[in-house]
Q: What sequence folds into this?
C-alpha cells in the first residue's frame, strides 16, 4: 500500500490502484457521473460544453467518460469526439465501429500464429473481449 495525495482535494490517502483520487472524491465523482448521465437522458441533444456548464463538471471529465464508453453523446462531430484511428466522428469510446472490427480481426489473426503458449493466449483474449464489450 502507498500513501499519496488525492489529485482532487490534496488529502493524503492509502492508494491502491486506478486514478489517484481519495475514496471521498471518487464517490463525489461517481455521483456527478450519475447526474450527468441523467441529464443526458433528459437532454439527449445537449452539447458537451452545455452539459459541463449545467452540471458543473469540466469538459475534460465529460470527454473522458465518453472515451471510457460510459457516456454516449448524440453528435460526436460537433464536439470533436473522433475515432483515434481514422478520425471519423463517433458518439462514444475511442474508436469507430469499423476500426474496432478491424482491430478485433487483427487480434484474432495474431492469435492464430502458433507461437505463444496456450494459457497466456487465453487470458489475453479474455482481456480483449472485456475491453471491447465494456
Ligand atoms: Zn480527494
Ligand atoms: Zn475509425
A:
Amino acid at each position: 500500500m502507498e500513501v499519496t495525495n488525492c489529485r482532487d482535494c490534496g488529502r493524503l490517502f492509502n492508494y491502491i490502484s486506478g486514478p489517484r483520487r481519495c475514496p471521498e472524491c471518487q464517490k463525489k465523482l461517481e455521483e456527478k457521473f450519475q447526474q450527468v448521465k441523467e441529464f443526458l437522458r433528459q437532454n439527449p441533444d445537449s452539447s458537451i460544453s452545455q452539459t459541463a456548464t449545467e452540471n458543473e463538471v469540466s469538459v475534460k471529465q465529460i470527454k473522458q467518460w465518453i472515451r471510457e464508453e460510459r457516456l454516449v453523446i448524440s453528435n460526436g462531430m460537433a464536439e470533436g469526439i473522433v475515432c483515434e484511428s481514422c478520425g471519423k466522428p463517433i458518439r462514444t469510446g475511442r474508436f469507430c465501429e469499423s476500426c474496432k472490427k478491424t482491430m478485433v480481426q487483427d487480434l484474432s489473426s495474431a492469435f492464430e500464429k502458433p507461437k505463444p503458449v496456450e494459457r497466456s493466449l487465453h487470458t489475453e483474449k479474455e482481456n480483449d473481449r472485456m475491453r471491447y464489450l465494456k
In short: The chain has a mean pLDDT of 84. The helical segments are 23-42, 48-55, 59-67, 76-79, 97-112, 118-133.
